[in-house]
Amino acid sequence: MPASDLAIKPCGSQELARLLELEHQGPDRLVRSVDVPSAAGEGSLVFLGAVDASPPAAACVAIVRPDWASLDSSGGTTLILADDPRLAFARALAILAPPATSGVSPKAEVDADANVHRSARIDAFAVIEAGAVIGSGTVVRSHAVVRAGVHVGANCEIGEHTVLGNDGLTVPIGEDGVPVPMRHVGGLRIGDGTRIGPNCTIGRGTLDDARIGRECVIGPLVNVGHNGGIDDYCIVTGGTMLAGGVRIGRGAWIGVSSVVHHKVRIGAGAVIGGGAVVSSDVGPGQTMVAWAARSLREMASARRANRP
Asked: Any long-range contacts for 143-150 (C-beta under 8 Å, 24+ apart)?
């Protein structure tokens, strides 16, 4: 839906700037919607990035860099000055579009022995098993499953159809060659403020708890294998596959559709480029990238050039 259709809590621009601890320039305007600059109308909040030439013509509120404060605002645009307009806009959205009210949907399946904080929100068709813990202010979206032994911290968000605490692929082979799946008895602990997108699977520990730190962001369609460990402030983007026992250090960034092999360690602050396949440890602060896709003609030419 268009940004202007979001449910916005109206707020004066001066009050918004105060809450953001930013400088306000121009008349106080009531912010009633959020938009992109090209679609801004009266009462819209926008932010101007590097590609934007000037404030919109409408009498809106624009978050801009301080060095843009002298831009022409003949259309009556009010300015809020921020070193990082995009970051300030994200924080403004948290003020203007707060989460829906707490409560458990009557269509959710919450076991009587689950521990769900009264301020949490459990949407329709979510399943919370006995022994699971859901912290204050956390939102569990529709059809998500939180298994027994999973502890979700405060102010987290669990996306639609995500499963937390599934058993991993620990399968010893019996003398007769038949696989013997091992029951996982460890748990899964997720730190405060972590957001997990839809359609993810986050495995539990085999014996000890698997862990995801605080303030992490995990995109959609991500698999985190059993015995995983993700430190605080990490970003794992969509489609990534982390095998069992992978450890990711504080503040690392894992690019889209990456694959990290079993028990690999990725150091703090490391960056893994999109599509990379990581089969050995990566040191702190290192950047690892995959080869870009090439046309068949380019590949054939490269093979001919490498022939003895």
From this structure: 146/114, 147/188, 147/204, 149/186, 149/187, 149/188, 149/204, 150/187, 150/188, 150/189, 150/190, 150/204
